[in-house]
Amino acid sequence: MAVCRDLWSRKLLALSLLFYFLLTLDVHARPANMSSSKDKSPATKDENEILPPDHLNGLKMEMDGHLNKDFHQEVFLGKDMEEFEEDSEPRRNRKKLIEIFAKVDVNKDRSVSAKEMQHWIVEKTKEHFKEAMEENKNSFRAVDPDGDGYVTWDEYKVKFLASKGFNETEVTDKIKKKEELKLDEETQEVLESLKDRWFQADNPPADQRLDEEEFLSFLHPEHSKGMLRYMVKEIVRDLDQDRDWKLTLSEFISLPVGTVENQQGQDIDDDWVKERKKEFEEVIDSDRDGIVTMNELEEYMDPMNEHNALNEAKQMIAVADENQNHRLELEEILRYSEYFTGSKLMDYARNVHEEF
């Protein structure tokens, strides 16, 4: 009997250890071919408020040099983007898209010209700008607790480190005493990058502090010509392999380190090269000399460039212009709803004329 009890105890212990092991497994672990040694933890609410966003609505490129895959939807839908979700009701989405078409069609001839689409794109981009300005008011209040209308670099650094889990009182005290802050390598790198960006946003005469407008350009470089130029310079620096501050096609289509995370990488490579080659040759390289200069990339990135808006309008029309009349009819825009809204509409032609 004692032997049985002993065997049962051992089995129970083994089962308990197995259960504990399963509980501690990371169910979201990446496959073997990882792009980094550890996953970054998601940004906290505080970090989201005071850190420059990785993605900027209405800009053709991301901060890291990737093409903005949602750009068409952003400049077509503006602040209405969230209404077109993949799981939302198709009939409601169709009705909303018909309403948008009617607004774009200013002269009410039941078709959309390139000029009409250009004006619409500019208006939707302004909506993103206005949204960013409203968000900036909250962000600025978060880093300007004394409400004096200015934020110094040290004040911002305290808030940033507090958002990363550091004790705000201790950090403030160490900065005042000019004592060394013991930071991990990753946090130190982010801080140094933010510091460079901070002083770029400090308009002359530089006083090492930002007001609300300067803080907006710190978070959203698209709101300032100088900061947009700085953003372009950072992108070129990351892609430029021979350090001549120009981009060749081969440099522009090179897959960044860390992009591929699994063995489906070849498909990603092919898509990356095809998409970026087309954008480089047909859009960014405006003089078609095979080289993209800083000025060309800056013009391409400028969200308020009306010439860019017209080119984008023509490109968007060309995608869906099945009858090749250089205009968009309602049926065409509904048929290509996924391109314009990110949401595929079923039975797009059903009662189109009645609803319109």
TrEMBL record:
Highest taxon above the source species: Eukaryota
One term of GO molecular function: calcium ion binding
Signal peptide positions on this chain: 1-29
Any GO CC annotation of this UniProt entry: endoplasmic reticulum
Residues covered by the EF-hand domain: 92-127, 131-166, 232-262, 272-307
Gene3D superfamilies (UniProt xref): EF-hand
Subcellular compartments: Golgi apparatus lumen
Recorded family membership: Belongs to the CREC family.
The protein, known as: 45 kDa calcium-binding protein
Record organism: Poecilia mexicana
